[in-house]
Amino acid sequence: MIIGIPREVVAGETRVSMVPSLVQNIVRDKHDVIVERGAGTRASFPDESYVKAGAKVANTAAEVYRKANIILKVQSPAKSSRKLESDLFMSGATYIGFLQPLSSATVISSFLKRKVTGFSMEYIPRITRAQSMDALSSMATVAGYKAVLLATEKLGKMFPLLMTAAGTVPPATVLVLGAGVAGLQAIATAKRLGAKVEAFDPRPAVMEQVKSLGASFVEMEMPEDAETKGGYAKELSPEFIKKEHEAIAARLPKVNVVITTAQVFGKRAPLLITKAMVKQMPPGSVIVDLAAEQGGNCEWTKAGTTVVKDGVSIVGAVNLPASIPVDASQMYSRNVYNLLKLLYPKPDATPDFNDEVVKGACITRDGAIVNEQVKNSLQKKGAKK
Ligand code: NAD
After folding, report:
1. Structural domain range at position 109
2. CA angle 72, 74, 75 (to 5 degrees)
3. What is the pLDDT of residue 199?
4. What three-state secondary structure class fits 247?
5. What is the pLDDT of residue 296?
6. Ligand 1 pocket, 233 CB below 6 A?
7. Is there an atom of ligand 1 within 6 Å of 217 CB?
8. Considering the entire predicted model, what is its pTM?
9. 237 is a catalytic site residue
């Protein structure tokens, strides 16, 4: 196989899909690797480190796409110098990356035309066996950590309790809403910095995880049946959200920072902080909304910018992993490498499309959409147009 690593073209994307240390493993597995010049530069992996690892460096993206059977990417194919990346794929090639098929209809039709086999990292089933390939979790870990650092920058106050000759500085109080992968990392990071942390999540299993990190759990009547079989949160009733608003509102006057991460798979993120609730927060406090791209957990959130309302900064956080490209690329590459090993356990192997993980992640194959959920959603969208 010839494995291609193009430079990411989406604005603000700094990660690379495969780091040199794992290129070395791919070469050891008897594949060839071709990397576009500068692909790893923004993540501090210079071209020379790829050459040392055994890769060839190509001067243009077109050369990578022309030669590679398997293309490794972070982002879904996008427009680059007026050409759509997916139109550069060889017929019958394979794509591995965050495909985002529901918002990439043009890319999908280009894949179908070229009979590209498209694997989407975000569709890897979240089962124990696939944990080492779970790029959603790796990137959520990075985002949860960075969300707290963003809050420390915006907040005009320190996080830890300090007892000094100039008096006692009380610790910052942090409220984390949604304690999945990102939320738990935000709690751990805020605790490491010495803040007083409280958190809430409607899934019953989360209470123990929150407490084990040294944070307290917002006590309120928990909803019945909050979780899907896959461990995700279900969309909650308006009655429950009302009670949740009351519990959050009771805390906001004493909170310096709120990190919101609440999401419900396939739906708009739940609205947890209304405009009226923001008014109750102390001036100078900060909300970092990690659900900004899914509609936001705060009513004021604008994805990609920070707005200041009633003295409160509301950060609409977008693609935070790209702001920590070294570790984010390392973690993502490891997830992708583990998927590659599953797909091609030997250099001449073909993927086992009956395998639960392979089947789950595969979106397009042989000129057809093979994921039923994606097929139905795209058909519905097409019909609406
Ligand atoms: P996510 O990003 O979809 O959602 C973030 C959090 O928001 C979740 O914890 C959810 O419960 C919470 N939430 C939803 N509605 C809320 C509300 N109204 N108020 C407050 N919080 C709300 O979730 P995620 O972090 O990607 O994963 C969630 C869970 O999925 C994990 O904790 C785990 O149980 C499961 N998971 C399993 C595996 C695995 O086994 N391989 C891997 C990753 C995740």
Report:
1. 2-123+325-384
2. 115
3. 98
4. helix
5. 98
6. yes
7. no
8. 0.95
9. no
